[in-house]
Amino acid sequence: MIPKYRKQYNQEFSDEKYNQLKNMLAEKGGTAPAFRVSESPIFLTKEFENKLLDASESIISQIKAMPAELLQKAIPDHCRVPNDTSQPHFFTIDFGICKSENGTIEPQLIELQAFPSLYAFQKVYEETYCEVYPFLSEIRNPMPHETFKNYLKKLIVGDENPENVILLEIFPERQKTAIDFALTEKLIGIKTVCLTKVKKEGRKLYYENNGKLTEIKRIYNRVIFDELDNIPDLTTEFDFREEVDVKWITHPNWFFKISKFLLPLLKHQFVPKSYFLHEFPENENLDDFVLKPLFSFAGSGVNLNPTKEITDSIQDKENYILQRKVYYEPIFEDINGDFSKAEIRLLYIWRENDERPILLENLGRMTKAAMVNVDFNKKDAIWIGSSNAFFG
User: Fold this and answer.
1) Taking a C-beta distance cutoff of 8 angstroms, is the pair 385, 366 a contact?
2) pLDDT tens digit string along 171-182?
3) Residue 10: pLDDT above 50?
4) Cβ 207 vs Cβ 193: under 8 Å
5) N or C: which end of the chain has fewer CB within 10 A?
6) Contacts from 242-247 at CB under 8 Å and sequence distance 24+?
7) Cα–Cα–Cα angle for 354, 357, 360, nearest 5°?
């Protein structure tokens, strides 16, 4: 997409530098990434960046205009958490990098979430790419590290003492995103706590901090709440649905409100047409659509080639959508002359008194497989996995 930078990067690339990149990330995080790190960043033009931002701003405006009652319908009754907020603290939006019918490269909306992604990791990842390949500093994200840190710290910690703020996850040491938890701890000075270790007394929550029972006043929530039901023999003192004296960052209800539930409601040239399964019109061709469950994570349950037999067999059709297929364009050339496809996630924060969210960083995913998910790649492929986009 930017021939100058792609050419220079591919000329400078070596396995030694790739190993250096991974080793530096492991050293900074105190643990190695448990997901595949791509050999290459994604290079995109300013023109493409403007298309991304135009689509995002339109989507944000449409969401802001939606009645609160409509968004409330997205929350399953058994997942409703008290003390909802008027807007989320995080907003992330995924676009595939595709080719239009007239041959131009354009973004196409894939998904959106009000759930934190790898904010701390992606900033360090971008900085590490620039350390290993200094010429990338010319086109790096202009936001200084200190500004990024202050934004994130103020959002998550607020005016509390960091010891009264936790990053909450279920069995965090087992999660593929553990390096992000470690980098978040280093960046803003909070501890990562497993849900099973949270103590409850009345309406107050506590955790053990260096042998001392410490009150939790704010929770940076990284638990996918609706997945807890799938964990056998899970024992906790605290249930999300209970009234407790904590501030959620971000409130768990927003995981459902800003989700695939919104895809049929959004309109833009870079938003593929979507329908709830029970509202799919007869004049549309099922072959042109992907079937997605409303509530799933990391691509689970997605069917790229649904049949009428499959859709007819689904009982809870209101919990599925059909989204028009988009075709990722393989335009990212590797050192062997092969090409990868990619998607990009924009990572926003949404401060409580702000009208609109602020874009902090991005996350890229590269693939040579049918689905853009690091679990679906061949083991010997290169230019695949987690990445970061540079615009120039």
Assistant:
1) yes
2) 999 999 999 999
3) yes
4) yes
5) C
6) 242/82, 242/200, 243/82, 243/83, 243/203, 244/200, 244/203, 244/204, 244/205, 245/203, 245/204, 245/205, 245/217, 246/205, 246/216, 246/217, 246/218, 246/219, 247/158, 247/217, 247/218, 247/219
7) 125
